[in-house]
Specification:
By secondary structure, the protein is an alpha/beta fold. The protein is built from 13 helices and ten strands. Bound molecules: S-adenosylmethionine. S-adenosylmethionine binds next to loops.
């Protein structure tokens, strides 16, 4: 596709709906999933061009102080567990809110994160933070399942006042059991925060309506908020959902040869060099799907993919 304006992209998209492609074409031998290192790079480009973290900042500002006010009341130490914490930016923001809401309280923060690069970056972030004197950190470089197994082998598991699983459940082995286990790790009056893509996001439409555009190299779960609340209902766990808008500027995905666009398509599909390895018809179908109004809108000539988030606060 040569360089096209957003209007041209949208105008051309309807022709493509008539193209039928069989699923077998979608996986050709040269197509492969992202390695952990490649995922780190693609995720970074997603964060740089989306309002994902700004959306979480808004939630932190508007809702978190009240949510955290009831945690660990009367205790001298508040125990926190981050699961799939990545490089820790969100964790530290939440710890600072806890410090503000419970001044003088000691915070014991444990982290379960399998990616060694993410763990190293998190440690570096902590080393450079001057305001975390009353906070201790323990990193477990493990998947959530490995952590669960270790705890079960020990026969006891520590209880936490606050556990968070932010944008990570897509990659766990068994979502219902993971939620069940970490919910059982909550202390009395503890809270579990799950942040996941909203049912109103472009991802939800892409996964529901345009699944056949996604290559089999994308090994994650296609789960959004309602999939999680269904699990919570079955567990009988009380919860409240907050919906927040967020967007991802994917304009470069439509510019042939653009390196940023290529990285974005890799993140969308979980596939290394998707634009260089996928059959042309698949590339066109995916770009077409991305332009549909249920996935994206246009703003000032840019294509903004809906990345709306759901914040689910679960009671112990
Ligand atoms: C999309 S990132 C989110 C990072 C961070 N929570 C944030 O919102 O910025 C997903 C994180 O989950 C981690 N992860 C992937 N599979 C996991 C698993 N099975 N158990 C725990 N964490 C996992 C990844 O390494 C990555 O750091």
């Amino acid at each position: 596709m040569a360089k096209m304006s957003v209007e041209e992209i949208l105008a051309s998209s309807s022709d493509m709906q008539s193209i039928f492609v069989s699923q077998e074409l979608y996986m050709i031998p040269s197509m492969r999933s992202l390695t952990a290192e490649e995922y780190v790079e693609a995720f970074k480009s997603f964060l740089d061009h989306s309002t994902e973290h700004q959306c979480m900042d808004e939630f932190n500002k508007e809702q978190m102080p009240d949510i955290m006010a009831g945690l660990g009341t009367g205790k001298s130490t508040i125990n926190v567990l981050g699961v799939g914490s990545g490089t820790g930016e969100q964790d530290l923001k939440m710890i600072r809110i806890l410090q503000a809401v419970h001044p003088g309280v000691y915070i014991d923060n444990e982290i379960v994160e399998p990616n060694p690069q993410h763990v190293a970056a998190y440690k570096e972030l902590v080393n450079q933070a001057p305001d975390l004197q009353n906070v201790s950190f323990i990193w477990h470089q493990l998947t959530s399942l490995e952590y669960e197994q270790q705890m079960k082998e020990k026969g006891t598991h520590k209880k936490f006042d606050f556990i968070h699983m932010i944008q990570m459940l897509y990659r766990v082995e068994d979502i219902p059991n993971t939620i069940k286990f970490f919910h059982s790790c909550l202390d009395h009056h503890g809270k579990l925060l799950i942040i996941i893509l909203s049912d109103s996001s472009g991802w939800a439409s892409l996964w529901k309506k345009h699944r056949d555009c996604l290559p089999a190299t994308d090994s994650g779960h296609y789960i959004t908020c309602s999939g999680i609340t269904e699990v919570l209902r079955r567990l009988g766990a009380q919860h409240r959902v907050y919906e927040l808008p967020s967007g991802w500027d994917i304009t470069e995905c439509f510019i042939e040869g653009d390196p940023l666009g290529g990285l974005m398509m890799d993140f969308l599909t979980g596939t290394k060099n998707f634009l260089g390895t996928a059959p042309a018809v698949l590339r066109r179908r995916l770009r077409d799907a991305l332009c549909q109004p249920e996935c994206s809108s246009t703003r000032d000539g840019r294509v903004i993919f809906s990345n709306n988030l759901s914040m689910i606060v679960v009671e112990s």
